[in-house]
Amino acid sequence: MYTALLLGLVSNFWSIRGNHNGFTVNNNKVVDQIFNIFWVLLGIGICIQSIRLQLWNPSGPGSGFIPFLTGLLIGIIGFLLFLSEWSKGSNQEEARKFWENPIAMKRVLYLVGSLCIMAFLIPKLGFLLTSVLITILMIRVVEPKKWITVILTSIVSCLLIYFLFRSLMQIRLPKGFLGF
Amino acid sequence: MDIFHNLLLGFGVILTPVNLFYCFIGCLVGTMVGVLPGIGPLAALSLLLPVTFKIPATASIIMLSGIFYGAMYGGSTTSVLVNIPGEAASVVTCFDGHQMAKQGRAGAALGIAAMGSFIAGTLSTIGLNFFSPILVVVALKFGPTEFFSIMTLGFVVSVFMVGGSMLKAFLMIALGLFVSTVGMDIINGAERFTFGSANLAGGFDLVAVIMGMFGVSEVILNMEEVFKREIFAKIKGIFPTVRDWIASAIPILRGSVLGFFIGVLPGAGPVTASFLSYAIERRSSRHPEKFGTGAIEGVAGPEAANNAAVAGSMIPLLSLGLPCNGVLALMMGALIIHGVQPGPTLMAQHPDIFWGVIASLYIGNVMLLILNLPLISIWVQFLRIPYWALFPIILLLCVVGTYSANLNIFDVWVMIGFGVLGYLLRKRNYELGPFILALVLGPLLEQSLRQALIMSHQNPMVFLARPISGSLLGISFLLLVFFFISVWRKGEKARIF
Lengths: 180, 497
Fold this sequence. Notes:
A: two-stranded antiparallel ribbon; 72% helix; B: two-stranded antiparallel ribbon; 21 helices
């Protein structure tokens, strides 16, 4: 439920227009700048944490040495990309929407949501039951086929994978309250 | 004589029922992966990585390499029949292969692609056979300084080879290196970036990160598009005519040599080889205007080149322990999981793996020729599987594969997280190849750097003072300078940012 709520919020937020100039979060240039700011912040965070880990000790480089260098590189490159994006005008590709097709956005969000629900439910319901339920959900969202086709495809796919990993490769898959 | 003696040992290894079986499975899965658009060899390898936990190291690496070169064979089928490349190295095959199919010559295109792949695969395996032991002798002189420098060169070349922004590629290398440092410090045991989580003490699981970055992100990306496939399923005359052979013989030989040497370069691989071969064939042709309208040379050369590049790229992995691209990085990961460290000592410590893999390439190429020519109509049926039925299976394989590595649901969350990150990065033109290269090589790079500095009493000049190391760093520097000058002259600012 929380995942569905979150997905709803994300999809609404994504389509909100910020001002009259047509600023929208769903724009490649804006997404690029969000990425660049993220890189700068990540770089700073890594550097601070690396300094705490000790950069250098009497015998040579410490635990924080390599992470510090990577943080520095991430931060500097992020900043350069930010400046470059800031200074140049928006070209045709960058002015395009990040998700041009609203259906594509919904599919992607539902798919990620389904995977999260799956990871959450597997320890509780077991692999087989969870995977059948989630596969039905995923196929229905992506391609609204007949229920019988979707259910059969899901059951066959899940049983096939269960048999391959559980019986042939003897890998222990999580069991639910039903015992499988 | 030693080489022949060792090759016999290799054939002794591969010609056992178990290894032949896994070689066949690798070729079969590889062809299938190549045929199916929307899943590349890297994603397939990451999906099958958990399978290798239960089988011996030699069989694992034989199977994984089978998938790699099998995908190169299979990729051409989709390019010719549907005009959608089955994997990235077959993009150029679409240009002329599909035009040939439209003219009713799909059989000839597929036939020459398979034959060319077989010839190139065999020739490059002979090259691998002779060059690898020579490189091993040189590599035995390598210390931590040299390893650090050659890895640096590998990173520079991988940046050089990406088509898009160079800064973004460097950023991906830095990110990959950072992700590789999460967990326990290999030298003093200090916990890094774990934030007290026991799940992160061992670092991010390689399988989870790779499956997320390549398997999950690929499915999410494919969700945005709906494939409309127009299949040219009528295939007749798969054996090329004498005229086809005359036109294709030189491009196949040229593609084989070019692909082999491109493959050896760190950071390059089958994709670069196929594009370069197409460009060379077009430039050297008497009728360049025919390229793009169904010229058989445009199929023969690139298909030979991408297969030759596979064997070429095995040289640095087997001799130096350096994976040239993402697929090989994954194969290296599989060997490390089995407790086998690829590198100069591999030939001496595990001759069964070293020579077994080389011999398996000969056998695998024969298997692939049989799988791809007479059975082509079966592979065409795979193209009819709708993506809506295929993607849940890929995702389930990702989930089960990731979980089975450590039997820990936390890894599945890691996979989802990296899947979303990989999707966003790919959508905004960040190349994932340099990331995976840095992720796999990260621990070795850090160990080499710190060992070299400790051994030299913290003197950083040691990297320049030793001749091999200094030369490798010099080449890296010159490559960067050359790159900047050429970009500056052409005014291609987009190649930097």
